[in-house]
Amino acid sequence: MRKKKVLLTCLTVFFALLFCVSGGVLVKELIQRKIDSNNFDKVTELAGLNINSLDNSDVHMVTEGESVSGDEEQNHTRNIRILKSENEDCIGWIYIEGTRVNYPVMHTPDDPEKYLRRNFYGDYSVSGVPFMDGSHRLTDMHVILYGHNMRNDTMFADIVEYADHYYRDEHPFIEFETEEGCTVYEVFAVAVVDATDDWYFTNPADQPENYAEKIAYIQEKALYDTGIVPEYGQKLITLSTCYGNDDDARLIVVAVERK
């Protein structure tokens, strides 16, 4: 009887400690996420965007052929030069209307994953900051941007929704703005691939044949057909994030520069 009481006491203490530790970890994570959110608010203001107007659920989608007023265009312009003056690793801004994807993009060729767990200011961050593949340059025909699939639906969490073609139909365009201007891309392929898939090493050469071959490769892997076939000379952008419970699985959203 005494042994049972001792065992019960030990188990009670164990689970109490486990609860405290788990609770402490959860609280720490929530605090870190709040810090990350505040930091991105600061960066958003630095970019010249109005935080209070960024409720994407109320954003009007500009469809093909529809004109954009000067005021609307100005609201979608980020001051990349100011961002670069604050942190020279910043090369641009990624934005998908109607989603939470609205972040600066970093690029550090000598330390490709520098911002995997760092915020815009270089401090530790659970969320990190979206960043461009270290082997790529903005002038390349194809660039890849990476971002975390966060449980609080930030960073590239919305990207996984593109597995459903209805989501793609509602959010077909991706804006990537740099110092050179803002380029609009249209999503033409969504696929689930391995982290070492050949697509991550794809940079279409100057030859039309190679370009067409790469396009055919990703369309064959695509989860559904969008009916869009990129033509030689159009630049490509890929957004990549973790997917599912497989550590090596990635969901990629591939878009082509609009003509």
Topology:
Elements: H1 2-46, H2 70-75, H3 80-86, E1 90-95, E2 102-106, E3 131-132, E4 142-146, H4 165-170, E5 173-178, E6 181-194, H5 208-221, E7 236-242, E8 249-257
Parallel strand pairs: 4-7
Antiparallel strand pairs: 1-2, 1-5, 3-4, 5-6, 6-8, 7-8
User: Which structural class best describes the helix and strand composition?
Assistant: alpha+beta
CATH topology: Sortase, Chain: A
Strand proportion: 15-25%
* Helix and strand run: HHHEEEEHEEHEE
Distance between the termini: 81 Å
Helical proportion? 25-40%
Within the largest sheet, what's the order of strands? 2-1-5-6-8-7-4-3
Number of strands: 8
Under CATH at level 1, the class stands as: Mainly Beta
Low-confidence parts lasting 5 or more residues at pLDDT below 50?
A: 20-28, 52-75
Principal-axes geometry comes out as globular
Total domains: 1
Number of helices: 5
Chain-averaged pLDDT? 82
Computed over alpha carbons, the radius of gyration is 21 Å
Q: Which architecture name does CATH use? A: Beta Barrel
Largest sheet: 8 strands, mixed
Name the CATH superfamily classification.
Answer: Sortase
